Amino acid sequence: MAAAIAAFLTQEPTQKVKALSLKTSSRSNEMYRISVDTGGTFTDVVVTDDKGRLFIGKALTTPERSFSGLSAAIANAADQIGITFETLMAETRLLVYGTTRATNAIIERKTAKTALLVTKGFPDTLIYRNGGKLNSSQINAAVSPPFVPRHLTFEIPERINAEGGIERALDVEATRSILEELKKRDIEAVAVSFLWSIANSAHEREVGQLIEATLPGIPYTLSSELNPVIREYPRTSSTAIDASLKPLMQTHLSAIRSDMNAAGFRGELLVSASSGGVMHIEDMARKPIYMAKSGPAMAPLAGIAYTQSEGLKDDIIIVDTGGTTFDVSLIRAGTVKYSRDTWINGQLSGTLLGIATVDIRSVGAGGGSIAWIDSGGLLRVGPRSAGSVPGPACYGKGGTFPTVTDSAVALGYIDPDRFLGGRMKLDKSAAVAAITPIARSIGKSVEETAAAILKLASETMIKAIEDITINDGVHPADSVLVAGGGAAGLNILSIAKSLNSKSVIIPKTAGAISASGGQFSDVAIDFSGSCFTSTLQYEKEKVQALLKDLSVRADDFEGDLKRRGITNFTRRIYVQARYERQQFEMEIELPIEWIDAGEDLSVLREIYDSQCKRLYGFSRADAPIETITWRLRVVADLPQPELTWAGPKEGSMDIRTTKAYFDGHGLIDTCVYNGTTIPLETVIEGPAIIEEPTTTVVVDPGITGKLSANGNYIFSFGA
């Protein structure tokens, strides 16, 4: 495996991208752009062509071999276009691939056997974490084991001080001896994180050379290269995660590229990143940590595009309800919100990614979330999910636990014969049978129980939305709610009413919103570094030296992309800062001019004070501001599709009537619309159900919306 990984990292792309190859084509036939989101339950594919037409493919995810589900979803889209799978692959110039595999590997601890090398005397960083807990009064708070076990953590005799001086030289012989021990233990990856390597990386780089000589072919990660920022735990955690993912994800990406090439694909293969952009496959193989939480990071890009097309507000809440989780992200003033506080498996008790990612809050509430009765006899929903295998009971694949999807089927919201556009038949009797034991336990009818399950899931989702918005000084009522995910339409309108939201957008691509976000993605990367100083005694030279280093790294990155034919770039600079004696820092964006002349402290103070006032209700104009970590973000613009919606072909709108259960109304007659036959600008009044090929929208009684000229369902509520 080690040899295969090394070969993958050094091989050239199968086909170099020539200048303008992503923008124009001299061929007479169509050229396509494909974006993929491989989720825990479904694999979603969005295809656009040169005319701006959009097609959605969907298939069950196949964990044992990702390309099986991926190819089935692409074939489904090809059928809609009217071409073969082979033709679509051959005529695709760009494919953006996203997957939850890295995230799942971290959650399930199915990563490589990894050794962690640390400074002698500091072996417990991953055990102590940040030292906090959510509930200070909970003495026995459960925490997950350290990401790298203590017995695989090795202390290296060396020491760098905070100024970069060498307190203790690296003991080369002791290091070689430890590396020989790693060889005996069949270590598959190595993470290196020394104290203050951000000030002087010489020791880490020397250990890297020793690893290459002693453990040839074994991948390793140096903290000073991956994430050179202050704070020991985030840097060490990100380094350990990245190293542990390399064997798995490099093998996976190599297999995907091989399968794609065998299927006739000759275009450019990019991979979605947790930073809200995409990276070339070779770059991602070198830093696979950016694949963690990368799927949901694409949804905000779609949310911005759809909201702008409708001319609505630029404060946006994006929700993505999949089979397993409910993901929420926030756009403020048209800008994606980022965070270095992204945890997997629970805040403070789980594992911290430690890198700058799109700020996404996830809760265990999706279409596959399982309903159950706790020891006190109360109904609960989630966080356990039925996934795609065996899936909800109604899938007929062996699942017996009642889920949110089963509840929607029992309530009459989902037609068992028309799921996924009729490609997958559901078993309503199995859904009812799964819900019945719970209904008996709580003394309710099946319909009342199903409605309660859906309502409980909604309450969990509402709390997640309030957490990310109110904590950022945004009121949900003042924002546009963009709903995505195959299960989002089941309850998003009732959620919007509870939040007093004024506008809700449900795109026709809602069932594949993360995949559709890949259509609007650009190549993006962050370069970070730490430089501690204060406005009280501002060390301009140190800051300028760091910013120059970040700029040089950005120049190299842009130079590589220019050779691939990408020429338009944008840079943004961020700094994590805090008031003196404040425990944790807050990130703000500064004018890009700081790169060349970072000395206007009045601008820094104005921006920091303003953001602190907005988030926390106070500012300290007399307190010095300390700057900690700087982040330079480089975005390389890719051509974006200009989507057009022609509406359905000539013919009457397909409407039928069914019985559906609505809380407070019981079982009532409900209009069911075939979404593919609805003309643009059609007004829809509840109670109604809209069946799109990849999602179902439930319109409660008293709610009115329309299909806009841009192909989005818009629902507006009272002022």
Strand and helix layout:
Layout lengths: L1 H9 L21 E7 L3 E7 L5 E7 L5 H16 L3 H6 L1 E8 L1 H8 L5 E6 L5 H4 L24 E4 L2 E2 L5 E3 L3 H13 L4 E5 L8 H13 L5 E3 H4 L5 H31 L5 E5 L5 E3 H6 L12 H11 L6 E6 L4 E7 L2 E2 L1 E2 L3 E2 L6 E2 L4 E2 L1 E4 L5 E5 L5 E7 L18 H7 L17 H15 L3 H25 L9 E5 L7 H8 L3 E5 L5 H5 L5 E12 L5 H23 L6 E11 L6 E5 L3 H4 L3 H16 L8 E12 L18 E8 L3 E9 L8 E3 L2 E5 L2 E5 L4 E4 L4 E5 L3
Parallel strand pairs: 1-4, 4-11, 5-6, 5-9, 9-10, 13-23, 23-24, 30-32
Antiparallel strand pairs: 1-2, 2-3, 7-8, 11-12, 13-14, 14-15, 14-20, 16-19, 17-18, 21-22, 24-35, 25-28, 26-27, 26-28, 29-30, 31-34, 32-33, 34-35
Helix pairs in contact: 1-9, 4-9, 6-7, 12-13, 12-14, 13-14, 14-15
State the main characteristics.
single chain; 719 residues; alpha+beta; Dna Ligase, domain 1; nine-stranded mixed sheet; six-stranded mixed sheet; 19 helices; 31% helix; globular; ACX-like_C; Hydantoinase/oxoprolinase family protein; Hydantoinase_A
